[in-house]
Amino acid sequence: MIVYKITTCSVRVKTKTCNTRTTGNKTALPLPWPFRSSDHALRIKKIGEALLQNEYDIVALEEVWGEGDFLRLQKALKDAYAYSYYFHSGFTGSGICVFSRHPIVSTLMHRFTLNGFAHHIHRGDWFGGKGVGLVEIEIEQYRINFYAAHLHAEYDPNKDPYLPHRLAQAFELAQFVKHTSYSADALILAGDFNIEPDNLAYQLIVKNANLRDAWIQKPNSCDDCGATFGRLDNCYTPKRLKNKKSYGKRLDYIMYRSGKSKVELKLCEIRMNRIHDQKAINYSDHVGIYAEFSVSEQYDEIAKSLSLTPANLLKKVIETQQEGITRVSRDRFIFLTLVVILVGLFLATFFAEQQMLIVKTLARTFRFLLTLLIGFCLWHGFIGLTLEYKALKASKASVSICNIM
């Protein structure tokens, strides 16, 4: 039997000003001043130091958008964590990387087919190549399938247009884990899921992939509520959340399941909250999760049993996906209607230019901007929304197959 230690942390970097409204997704990008966080380099350095001080076997980090940050961490950690991997994907990168003390023998990544909207530039999710990465790690005689994932953010739980996308991501994640883990001795899934335990997407992941939530299954007692985001003791928690006096949200997870060998959870707790020598600064607006497991060759009958996803759960997912498909059709009508209106304005500028020569330069500038808008509306109306429509239909069809079975 061996015991190994796992930790995951969402590395979001914000400015030291605690009442900032800028989301971590943007300020963690490797951008120049004034867009880049003033504490960006310090935060990355302190994360590296914290990982060196603790003897973790495997570490998963999310939102390391800049490859340069990964390379700096890789260089700082190379003596302790000899094996590492960054999952390249999307325009800004997947943000997902793994560090290990044990050999990484193979890797695989699945990029989610749906990840937000191209015209929601203020969110930025569409530009990131979010997905689930797999690293197969060799620890003595065992092969461990270690998965790291990052799902689309939830910006407004009361009005969430991204829910169909997040459900599609959750289903793809569960399917990926389920179909790539048959030969593994054990499997562990870690990451920032951006969903709470009562969320439909959470249930889809747990039930469809037959996983156990380490925080729920932990044998150790803990005074902490398990919240990883929006905590009152975190400098970067928005004031609107602190004013609610809530304990925060549990958005980050470590999940596990036995494979050919038996996995037993020994410990699960919160790690990496405040930086020890920087009392006013946190490592991130998310805290890390730590779990300790033992692996033995004992056969696990419970894990081997077939787990069927409840039909009522799948029915709710199908209904939500259908709502997404309906919304796509409505959006296509809106964007193509905008094309007609913008073309009308474009032609009107020629008439205005002939009537008033003084507005000639202004009219040309306006036509240039209209051309860009018309081009985007045509692309999004015909191509972008068609891709989303087909991806939602594919997701709905796959879930429907599971529902039949």
Automatic annotation (TrEMBL):
The chain crosses the membrane at residues 333-352, 364-387. Coiled coil: none annotated. It is found in: Membrane. GO terms for cellular component: membrane. It is an enzyme of class 3 (hydrolase). Pathway: Sphingolipid metabolism; Lipid metabolism; sphingolipid metabolism. GO terms for biological process: sphingolipid metabolic process. One of its GO terms (molecular function) is sphingomyelin phosphodiesterase activity. Residues 43-286 form the Endonuclease/exonuclease/phosphatase domain. Its EC number is 3.1.4.12. Keywords: Hydrolase, Lipid metabolism, Magnesium, Membrane, Metal-binding, Sphingolipid metabolism, Transmembrane, Transmembrane helix. It is a multi-pass membrane protein. Pfam families: Exo_endo_phos. Its main location: membrane. Belongs to the neutral sphingomyelinase family. This is sphingomyelin phosphodiesterase. It comes from Wuchereria bancrofti. The lineage of its organism: Eukaryota, Metazoa, Ecdysozoa, Nematoda, Chromadorea.
